[in-house]
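Hello,

Following up on my earlier ticket. Below are the two sequence lines again, exactly as submitted.
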Amino acid sequence: MKALLEWLDHRTGCKKLLHEALYENVPGGSRWRYVWGSTLSFTLVVQFVTGCFLWMAYNPSSQTAWESVYYIQEEMWGGWLLRGLHHYTAQAMNILLVLHLMQVMIDGAYRAPREINFWFGLGLLGLVMALSLTGYLLPWDQKGYWATKVATSIAAITPLVGPELQKLIVGGTEYGHHTLSRFFALHAGVLPAAVVALLVGHIYLFRRHGLTAKEPKRKPDEPFWPEQVLKDGVACLAVLAAVLFLVVKHGAELTAPADPADNYAAARPEWYFLFLFQLLKYFPGESEIIGAMLLPSLVVVLICLMPFFGRWRLGHRFNLGMLGVLLFGIGLLTWQAVRADQSNPEYLRAVHQAEKDAQRVKELARGPAGIPSSGAVTLLRDDPLTQGPKLFARNCASCHRYGGHDGLGGVATNAPSAPDLMHFASREWLAGLLAPEKIATSHYFGGTKHVDGKMAKFVRKDVQAFTPEQRAMLVKGLAALSAEAQLKAQREIDQREAALIKEGRALLAGTELRCTECHQFRKPDEDATAPELTGYGSRAWLISFINNPKHARFYSKRNDRMPAFGDEKILDAHAIGLLADWLRGDWYAPAPTR
Amino acid sequence: MSAAPSPHPPDRRSFFKHAAALVVGALATVVPTLAGLLTLFDPLRRKAGSAAFIQVAALTSVPEDGTPRRFAVVADRADAWNKFPQVPIGAVYLRRIGRLVQALSVTCPHAGCPVAYAAGADTFLCPCHDSRFRLDGTLADPKSPSARAMDALEVELRNETEIWVKYQNFEAGKAKKIPLA
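Thanks for your patience. The regenerated structure is below:
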């Protein structure tokens, strides 16, 4: 073994290298304040290691990026841990960079002869920010997609070359496969290579000029190993512990797959870019360029010049003051951004909706149909539970309600002027419609012109005067009518009470309940003046109704204000189908876990 | 070349420091590596889909004279996160003598290339390393690179006319036919 080591050393000089690495002189002995550079190197190693492993499972294209990240996060062994480490270590780096910068500034390590090394450090800071920005897009989820879109839109306001620059970054005019390929190549290839190059220079210059000791020295000089290594190691372990805590407690977020057609209202950059985001709010119109480029560039130039200011008598204090003001400003802007969001109910609702969508798409992806090759985004686009409420809020909620709200949980300001459609066609809903005390309320016909129509009169007068036997018949009739809808929620009771439903069907068709005086049921009736009861509330019936309520099968010319959503091409067949499925409570639900 | 002596002579306290520094350093680097290795080894727990009988062809579509004919095997396929319903997942050669049907995997047992049927020569020929097989799948050449005959698959004749094949893959390069797990 010893001979082998000797041979290796003779050929490579590794002992000397190791010795130089470990026995660097630490003037004034090891101190905790020197650990930041090492923690940064450590986090960088963590990012390289976790990044390489993530690379082996990641797939950059707009149909597979989200899907592969979902697979890493939810399906692969330890994938949540791996991605969590990468995600939160990236955030830790941004904090450590600031701490390192502060220590270098306060200890005066940026001044001559270390100017160039200071600039190398600033370059590394910029590269890490670029890595954060490019990495944020890679999962191709709503959050990363929309936040990055803002960043690349800002690139477009660059003077002279803006639009061309944007096209180059995005890899075309629209976000797509090439945006991901480019961002991934930058994130995993170009930027890490640049980091390594700058870091080699950074450490070389650090060794060349030696450590800038904090005066006064408290102890005699020590070598780097083992005292300072131990302190550095403990600091690294503390960083790792903090990261692990966040991974276990919160995990790396994966919102719903990016959907360019969706109004995603919760788009925000990661918290360490919030100050730039907030800054933009203060520059109206075309003056945006001041906040987006001029001001940040000016600050960067000022920081780069700090080593020169530091030569003046009061220069060091001036620099420290400037850094303090800058950090305070960044802190203030971040705080303002967070506070504005926390007191914005629209934003909070959007975040809640985003969380719901994220949960739902994972539920669908785990379902028996899995993820189609067109990508997980189609899972949500074709999901009645996701699209139904959105379609309802946009198209129906100006008149209708759903359980008192607009479908998405929002409360409309105007009073409802059409029936509440939650549990439409269910036994309870129909029982309410046929209840003399309910039919004229805003829950049913109250807000419509049908409040004075034949049906309302029939219910309020005739049904009111029903004998107990007639009431019993009505219950059977309603059970039969509700069974026409074939609702998922009533499948069991419909099966169980098949005999009663058969009886009720006969009653509906007969004269006792007087339904067929106006409605058509099971057999053609040209004199029918009210909506057809055959298949009432079924998918086909509801789609036809939404397509055109003015059709002779339904309200004909007695239709109140409801538009013919299909025939007037307000909604397409796909949307109407989703709306009908949602109103009928028909969507994929995972089997309850025991 | 020898290392310069460390400024402090080793003692018990310094030994503890050395050990602690090593342990702490190791701990910090081992966590991300372990997380990565776990996901790297994730494929090891994925099993090949259990071989099931798949309907491949109708009896009448296979020539009665023993001439082999190639048929695609269509089934549901899962590829990591994607599920593809009813797509071609492979192919088999079917041969028939009377009502006796034989199924051979098109995958060469040598190194996995697709074996071609050379109609003129009445043999199967692998285009990669020239393994040759007789029509019944047995090795046609004692110097064949393939260590075993073409992989015969189990066949069932259902409802008189439907040919169902138990489609599966086997480890390549071995004299023994071992199903891939």
